[in-house]
Amino acid sequence: MSRLGSRPLFDAEFHAVLAALERHARRVMRSDRAGGGEVPRRGLSGTIFHDYRDYSPGDDPRRIDWNVYGRLGDLVIKLFEAEARFRLHVIVDTSPSMDVAGRSSRGWLAKRLAGGLAHLGLHVFEGARLVITPGRDDANARMLTGKPHLPSCLQRLESAEVHQGSMAETLGALPAGFASRDATLILSDLFDLEDLERSLRRIGRRTRRIVCVQILDPIDLAPERDGWRRVRDVETGRQRLIRLSSELRDACAEALREHEQQVSALCRRYGARRLLLDTASPFERAMLRVLEALA
Q1: Among residues 33, 36, 126, 241, which is most buried (max CB within 10 A)?
Q2: Can the peptide bond before residue 134 be classed as cis, meaning omega within 30 degrees of 0?
């Protein structure tokens, strides 16, 4: 049975892992700044004011601009240039190949990782955009800041259904330059090379970092033993009875190696990093590897 149907996406383990990873995520943000070091405190020399954002419960009260509050009655915090440029754009693939009629854990892990990244984007970094693709959800266009937005992000992921369509078309509906100077992650099996290339072209080279997280099941990496199997094309719905032999397994393994080489070549062309994750990996380890790819 797929874990998608037998286990909650966002259980107690999920929240415990994310709480433990917040410190590691802060190190990622610090190491990304030129010269490293802590976030400059308000009022210290050498800081460059970037923008305001609304105060959210959980923000450090010391960062509130009390002058603005005194004039306008609005609670806002100051962002400095070093702080304002680590936002996450999390693109999660919900196309049919990620689910395979409930028998694959690819979609389950992609959503769980997306929830974890949204948590870090809202708790540690300066914001997160959650893009669920394919689809034209208006929520895809929103850059969110502050912890109170996390429940709605997790709810969107829990209710996301399988959809036919193109990731590139979904990204095309977002504002031009939506990922400029920010970090972007694609969570997908990356089986559609044409769609991947169009998506990377859409994201553009001005983004700070692109990480393509390729999520595969163990059976994708090592097909099961010999025997007759009924297979179904998840895109067309057509079924066929085949005999899985050692020769066919070898051919599948070779085809996967060629596909991975093509994915890696595309990522290099567009300045992206490729990270391969097995759905059998523990969630904490998978999140750590994603954070390491961001660093």
Answers
A1: 126
A2: yes
Yes or no: say if 188 and 167 are a contact pair by the CB < 8 Å rule. yes
Residue 139 has φ and ψ, to the nearest 5°, of: -65, -20
Rounded Cα–Cα distance for residues 188 and 56 (Å):
31
DSSP 84: H
Per-residue pLDDT tens for 150-185?
999 999 999 999 888 999 999 998 887 788 778 999
Q: What local confidence, expressed as pLDDT, does residue 29 receive?
A: 65
Distance (Å, rounded) from C-alpha 207 to C-alpha 183?
A: 6
DSSP 191: -
Nearest-angstrom CA–CA distance, 136 and 161: 13
Identify the pLDDT of residue 3.
46
Query: Smallest Cα–Cα separation from 165: which of 188, 134, 200, 195?
Result: 134
Torsion of CA 193, 198, 199, 205, to 10 degrees: 120
> For residue range 178-197, what is the model confidence (pLDDT) as tens digits?
887 789 999 999 999 999 99
d(Cα 249, Cα 222) in Å, to the nearest integer?
8
Contact between 17 and 117 under an 8 Å Cβ cutoff? The reply is no
Structure tokens at 235: 């895109």
51: three-class secondary structure by DSSP: strand
Per DSSP, 144 falls in state B
Q: How far apart are CA 150 and CA 260, in angstroms?
A: 33
